[in-house]
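COMPLEX REQUEST
Ligand: S-adenosylmethionine
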Amino acid sequence: MIQEHEAEFEPAATRRDAGDAESSRASRGWWDRNADEYQTDHGAFLGDDRFVWGPEGLDEADAALLGPVESLNGLDVLEIGAGAAQCSRWLAAQGARPVALDLSHRQLQHALRIDGGEVPLVEADAGALPFADGSFDLACSAYGAVPFVADPVRVFREVRRVLRPGGRWVFSVTHPIRWAFPDEPGPEGLSVAASYFDRTPYVEQDEAGQAVYVEHHRTLGDRVRDVVAGGFRLIDLVEPEWPAWNTQEWGGWSPLRGNLLPGTAIFVCERD
Ligand SMILES: C[S@@+](CC[C@H](N)C(=O)[O-])C[C@H]1O[C@@H](n2cnc3c(N)ncnc32)[C@H](O)[C@@H]1O
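STATUS: Structure written out below.
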């Protein structure tokens, strides 16, 4: 007998409030379901042991946003929203002692697949870091956690708590200006379609109205205020330009849009 397969459910996209618990639950589920596809699609670009800040391909080996590469030797570093821990592996190669933290079990399984457990992995939410105060010299995140949480200040305060005095916290997120444009790599992604000032989260939800994917928007000013409220000084805000060598599209990030609009914002922060 041939069994009939139900058509796969297409989540409905909407804009509505989504709190911390709902956002976290949605992120865990979404990244567990989509980790395989993410690593298949982007693993080659990310490399197993490169530290890439975003789809533009800005490499920490060149940017040195965490500090001079030679100074990383011997430092304890926390990578938040590490995915398959590519950045942590690069840090380990520089002599640092990284710990890769992620909410998604499946993403961390990809880390294990790549290095067999060389980088220590922790499955936890960025809003409640399971580490003692002052455990790390540096913290970093390439598009991990921050765009997906309802309360980024809670995350920043946690990061501050686990950092030692003077520690740097460097994180990249989708550049806030992108919120106003459709998430499309082609010309349709060049016309403003929504208010930059509307902070209502983007939510995909199932038939029961449960969020299955959530992304939170903060304006550039909001992000600066959040960094300060989290107990950090902002020492740089990097907007990587699209390099000529990068001909690859990544979702809504493309050479076409990258040459006209910033796609990534990287916040370089320091605690006192
Ligand atoms: C866009 S991926 C980036 C992964 C990796 N940094 C990279 O560059 O490939 C976002 C990651 O953040 C993780 N994440 C989302 N919300 C999180 C949270 N609240 N706490 C910890 N990790 C979270 C996801 O599971 C996912 O692995």
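REMARKS: The longest strand covers residues 163-174. The two ends are 68 Å apart (CA to CA).
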